[in-house]
Amino acid sequence: MTETGLDPSGSPQAADLDLVHGVADRLAGAMTSVIEGKSDVVRTTVTVLFAGGHLLIEDVPGVGKTMLAKALARSIDATVRRIQFTPDLLPSDVTGVSIFNQDARRFEFRPGAIFANVVVGDEINRASPKTQSALLESMEEHQVTVDGTTYPLQAPFIVMATQNPIEMEGTYPLPEAQRDRFMARISMGYPSPRAELDLLESHGARDPLDDLVPVTDAKTINLVVQHVSRVHASPAVRQYIVDLVTRSRSTTALRLGASPRSALHLLRAARAHAALEGRDHVIPDDVQVLATAVLAHRLMPSSETQLARRTTAEVVADLLRQVPVPATSR
């Protein structure tokens, strides 16, 4: 056992899963008080947080993308920074810059906006690809290198970025390397008429974010992430994930299949989903529930798929039907 009481060699115990459940319920309750009628979106957001990943929220303007990101940020007692991605944003605005101190006669590092537990990147695809690339090292390695010096980022660390569809005016496409670093992509979608009516009633006179208070803290989130990482995944489940991503690389519907990083992200997300379901082991259903959110944004359709007006989400659905599901036990 370690100092924190964790057994790194074993699956999480019942008390560990109770902690995961309790934190998830508190976060979901706080966020759904702001985001009306989107419990599935909130659940996926919490899943990505617990899996230690980053989240890309893509949809048309005005459906609550930034509100979702801000709701999660305010629900956690941790450091939060917001980056408004604009065409004139520089990479140094994100990572930080070394400034010469005349009094001390030396260079001093001034941290950029990326130095926070929760980073809200608003409309990330309105910045140039050069600036977007400033996030690559921090998102993958949880560190920033400036002028040859590496600065670690504190855990937990999650980037929640919003973007408008690429056909919207003034947007740049996200580089493939950038998209691949996001564990999952979700779409808000339009609310139901009932939820929209509730929205007008609750948001019409005041901002519900003003009443949102933290329901957990950074230390607890770190502990939850550790518990989730110990959820058992059998060899058959891991092989199922490999079979899915391998099939994506050979299908004629795609010109770029899923990366090895996507397989790792799918496993981590499936572990988080299993823990939220109260299980200490992953089953194929966990993989299937998250496959579209984790894989679709990384794939590049072939010209035939584009001409047929088929989405990469539909291609992932085909892959799930084609790849045999293992009959596994723990």
Automatic annotation (TrEMBL):
Q: Which residues form the AAA+ ATPase domain?
A: 51-192
SMART domains noted in UniProt = AAA
Q: What domain of life?
A: Bacteria
The entry lists its GO molecular-function terms as: ATP binding; ATP hydrolysis activity
Q: Which PANTHER family does the entry mention?
A: METHANOL DEHYDROGENASE REGULATOR, MOXR FAMILY PROTEIN
Q: What is this protein called?
A: MoxR-like ATPase
Q: Which organism is it from?
A: Humibacillus xanthopallidus
